[in-house]
Amino acid sequence: GENVEQHPSTLSVQEGDSAVIKCTYSDSASNYFPWYKQELGKGPQLIIDIRSNVGEKKDQRIAVTLNKTAKHFSLHITETQPEDSAVYFCAASSGSARQLTFGSGTQLTVLP
Amino acid sequence: GAGVSQSPSNKVTEKGKDVELRCDPISGHTALYWYRQSLGQGLEFLIYFQGNSAPDKSGLPSDRFSAERTGGSVSTLTIQRTQQEDSAVYLCASSSRTGYSYEQYFGPGTRLTVT
Questions:
Q1: Which residues of chain A have pLDDT under 50?
Q2: Which of A36, A43, A98 sits opposite B50 (nearest CB)?
Q3: Do B31 and A51 touch (CB under 8 A)?
Q4: Residues sharing a CB contact under 8 Å with residue B13, sequence separation 6 or more, in sequence order
Q5: Is the backbone peptide bond immediately before B61 cis, with ω within 30 degrees of 0?
Q6: Alpha-carbon span A87 to A52, nearest angstrom
Q7: For chain A, N or C: smaller number of CB within 10 Å?
Q8: Chain A within 8 Å of B51 (Cβ-Cβ)?
């Protein structure tokens, strides 16, 4: 089955700096890669996703890149703000399986 | 519109008791998923319902776990003879599956504590 690894497990940045979280996946059939933000006591919130026919996608301060050959994808957050502090999860899914396989999460702390 | 809702938000039960957790998906969403999140861990897939198809139960950890979805909408996850290792947050998600829409939207979860 699919295996998703996520790094780093914790990340601290100064407000205004950029943050990068990286994930690798094992199943070459995976074709959908979402990123979720989870605040304390809440369910995961979808913040951006990318499909395997696209190499990069951007939405305001967040962007995701995908390298299918290397089987890795990354989340980039620019101009970080304290409210970006949360746990971020990457995930992968193949069209046939549908369920998401999640990485282990990254605790992002943005220091004011 | 309304998102995915789950009830109860918190449940404390004694070891050996049965529990039922409820999920109301987003109206019109045909796919429904249950995941489990243990303390400080990622999310672990449990079961997936898609329309009237047979559910994908491949993630259920033991035969003490079961789920049903009535009328293609509300779902109930049942854990029989609960054990302490069942303590976790149980999350439900729903998806529209229109075209290539795979986005899953999560509810707030039910925190289960087995004492």
A1: none
A2: A98
A3: no
A4: B19, B82, B112, B113, B114, B115
A5: no
A6: 24
A7: C
A8: no
Q: How many other CB atoms are there within 10 angstroms of residue B46's CB atom? A: 22
| Cβ–Cβ < 8 Å for A38, B109 | no
Query: Does B53 contact A at CB distance below 8 Å?
Result: no
Higher pLDDT, B38 or B42: B38
B42 near A CB under 8 A:
yes
The Cα–Cα gap between A84 and A63 comes to 14
CB atoms within 10 A of CB A46: 15
Residue B106 to chain A, least CA–CA distance (Å): 6
Cα–Cα distance measured from residue B112 to residue B88, given in angstroms and rounded to the nearest whole number: 5
| Chain A residues close to B100, C-beta within 8 Å | 51
Q: How much of chain B, in percent, has pLDDT values that exceed 70?
A: 95
Read off the tokens for B94.
Answer: 């729903």
